[in-house]
Amino acid sequence: MKERHNEKIKGGILIFRRGDTTGRIKTTSILKGVVPFEHGNLFEAIEEAKRLSLIHPDKEFSVFAETMTIKNGKRVMEIEQ
């Protein structure tokens, strides 16, 4: 899969909308085969979450950052905190 405009595959920073009644992360799009957009840095993701919240008033958007990747029981990548 190729990167979309301004996307950074393995960028590790994602935005998800929270459900209105449950507060849980909405996964409907993922279940339909839509791949989450990965941002390359926290600042861009925060700005995008702000933009989305203005388009969709009263909806909550959460920004998540990957902290570690594990494959075959071993650390592949760890983000410095």
Structural shape: globular
| Number of H- or I-type helical stretches | 2
Q: What's the gyration radius in Å? A: 14 Å
Structural class: alpha+beta
- Total number of beta strands: 4
Question: Can you give the helix content as a percent range?
Answer: 10-25%
What fraction of residues sit in β-strands? 15-25%
The order of strands across the largest sheet is 1-2
Question: What characterizes the major β-sheet?
Answer: 2 strands, antiparallel
**Total of domains:** 1
Which H/E pattern describes the elements?
Answer: EHHEEE
Residue runs with pLDDT of under 50 for 5 or more positions: none
Mean pLDDT: 86
Report how far apart the termini are: 29 Å
Using brief descriptors, characterize the structure shown.
81 residues, two-stranded antiparallel ribbon, 4 strands, 23% strand, alpha+beta
Description:
The termini are far apart. This protein has 81 residues and is α+β, with helices and mostly antiparallel strands. The chain is globular, with a radius of gyration of 14 Å. It has helices at 28-31, 42-55, and strands spanning 13-17, 61-65, 68-71, 74-78. The protein contains two helices and four strands. 22% of the residues lie in helices and 23% in strands. The longest helix has 14 residues, at 42-55. It has one domain. The model has no long low-confidence stretch (mean pLDDT 86).
